[in-house]
Amino acid sequence: MICKFCNQQLQRIDHTNQDVFDIFLCENCLKPNFATRFRQVYYKGREELLAETVRIDEFFVIINYKFNLTTNRERYTVIHKSATGHFSASKKVVDINTIIDLPFHDPEAIKAKLRTYTVFS
Predict the structure, then answer these.
(1) Cβ-proximal residues to 64 (8 Å cutoff; 6+ apart), any chain
(2) Which domain, by its residues, includes 61?
(3) C or N: which end of the chain has fewer Cβ atoms within 10 Å?
(4) 2, part of any domain
């Protein structure tokens, strides 16, 4: 499991559903230029990626590949804006019925792309 921002190994984290999921995280690897968080979710002991969450500055993105326990949906992207610490305080801006491709090699390009998707919010 590799962070798409910095290409370093993700760290497995403790969480409440450790018997069901493995969650891997890299946080603030692009400081001081960007506030970032990259997380991947897998079923425990499996290699199939269920979902990724990406935070870059004011944007929080959920990329859902196969995590359908709560929504009965797969292969979609949700973009939140103004994510300041607490996810519940953020504003859901765009729900897209496909997986969007983010240019992780260029954080400014990610932000520009997310601004384009959220321009009318």
Answers:
(1) 50, 51, 71, 73, 74, 75, 76, 77, 78
(2) 11-117
(3) C
(4) no
